[in-house]
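Final report, closing paragraph on structural work. Over the funding period we assembled a curated collection of sequence-structure pairs, and we close with a single example.
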Amino acid sequence: LEYLYDATEERSSDDLFHLILMPSTFKKDHMSIENTAASCTAILGIPTDKAQDLSLYAKHQGFSCLGTWTHEECVAKGKELLSKDLDCRIIPFNGASDAEEESEVESNNVVVMDVLTQKALFESAYMLSLDA
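Its predicted structure, as stored:
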């Protein structure tokens, strides 16, 4: 589930991680945009229209950042998504980007990013899709 993580790096329980939806989710015959969005809404608590947009983006553009939480929360949410047959990865938060300023913080502490912010946050969808 974790990717781009340096095991030698010290981390705090408050460190943030991104939960990424992978395009390989849609290689499965039974996985549709609607099915994926419904799972994201149920598990992550994001609005249906945003879940739909994020699912569509992942399918056609290579990946989608579903949100940002602490490591423990990301692992728990990621495992739930995996149980619904969604392929996802957890990657360390990229604090070097301007994503914090352009992100919308929802009432349940979910950071929802627009598509341009997601694109700027991750330089290579190819790297993320390895092992998918």
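The chain is about 40% helix and 15% strand. Confidence is low (pLDDT under 50) at residues 97-109, 123-129. We thank the funder for supporting this effort.
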